[in-house]
Amino acid sequence: MTHSGDLRPYTRLRVERRGPVGWLIFDRPAAANAMDATMFDELERAWSELADDPLVRVIVNAGEGRSFQTGVDVVQMARDKDALREHSRRTRDAQLRFTAWHCDVWKPVIAAVNGTCAGGGLHFVADADIVIAASDATFVDPHVSVGQVAAYEGIALARKSPMEAILRMALVGRHERVDAARAYQLGIISQVVDPPENLRDEAQTLAEKIARNSPAAMAASKRALWGALETGLTEAGRRGAGHLTSMWGHPDQEEGPRAFAEKRDARWVPMEGARPDA
Amino acid sequence: MRDYEHLIVERHGPVGWLINNRPDALNAMNANMRDEFADAWIELDRDPEVRVIVHTGEGRAFQTGVDVAEIASDGVGMQRYRQSVEDFDLHFTSWHQQVWKPVITAVNGICCGGGFHWIADADIVIAASDAQFFDPHVSIGQVVSIEAIGLIRKMPAEAVMRMAFVGRHERMDAARAYELGMISQVVDPPKRLREEAQALAEKIAKNSPAAMAATKRALWGALETGLTEACRVGAGHLVSMWGHPDQEEGPRAFAEKRDAEWAPLEGTSGSG
Predict the structure, then answer these.
(1) Which residue in A28, A75, A148, B204 is a FRET match for B151, CA 20 to 30 A apart?
(2) Which residues face A138 on adjacent strands?
(3) Domain span at residue B216?
(4) B162: which chain A residues are within 8 Å (Cβ-Cβ)?
């Protein structure tokens, strides 16, 4: 399903372009960027819009205000359960559509975590390719402290990070937080930005480095690496060989070494929406 | 025993050494070197005097991946290389060759791109303090795949993905690789790398070869399946040693405060 041409304004997000970098910013700071039904709909639309825009090479996901993202809006859950009925169905059927991974976005995605990342906010850490954070960012998973199960986020994070840290976060709930420095030690994030107000500048700088690489090669690499989380090592290698050879004969493989030899930036073949059938 | 052009194969006590020896090309792997790797792993694995294998490089780089230019220029080289990747029929790492002796990779200097194959596929990795890691594949239009697929099972995945997408525009140093658990030892000063690798290998060589081979099968096999199935398979490897003479000799040597005399291990490579 594509939403290209859908020009409705976003009310819970900001979607922007800065050079080759697309920005998807949670913009509901008064509610700590919690996701209500409207935000769930807008997220699916926004990932599609940025994935389909050939001028966007890399996507940065950030939050407005004191929090990055704090998960499902429990106020709406308490007052208007019907509004979240579609989200509940998708949760039950494992058909979520609000992160880049859910939406088959094969462009590189950087999560730039400002402030608090809590509960369902960890979806966006788990499903990003690269995660950086402001030095005052904190990570906490309060699901079990409110009688909810921590599942999707922790499952993906446990494949990508030392598992003890993820289980501790899941079971201690709201009674403890992981700070940015510890998240960096654990390899959950790869960069701590200090002072915190430099977070977006650093994210843009990192994204611009990535934007210099071959879009087609990055899309195939992303499929190979995320696909590797699906199977055993030997089978993952076999499938990875398929992704590897899928680029052979692509013009970027001539242009890359030539540009390097001529000491200039490469002129890569532009990618049509990086979401050809997954 | 064959002669090697681009590798050095040596024995130091119980330790077999496999040294990348194409320093003028930063040890990039051409077609000939690729074939030599296949033979050298098997040679060291089949030698009963060799208990542990150390892999390192000559010069200022450990390994920099496939020498595409040279493979392409030797006529049939490129075609053979293509075919081997398409068929996922690779033979240049110890994992490819099913070497069940412990393998230590000792990273000197630069390790980039396809060089990560020998980090992903080693059991233990140590590095000189001036070692540098980066993956320039996507910066020249190439896909990051098989090496990184192995690495993301063995260390925090975010760091692997960052290297994959930033390409040649950033490098990781040995200190960060150590923090992340990609390597377990940083050797400083760098010139002591081989000495430290030999010392580590000699410690490992004191352990039961048969028990280490079964352990290695259990741990690498665990990367193939879900947890419960991995334990089921692992139980098979565990009990495969029951009744083995090493299980009598080990406690006896310990009690008598002497080194154990282990049953020699026949070469095990090739048998899954």
Answers:
(1) B204
(2) A116, A179
(3) 209-255
(4) 129-130, 190
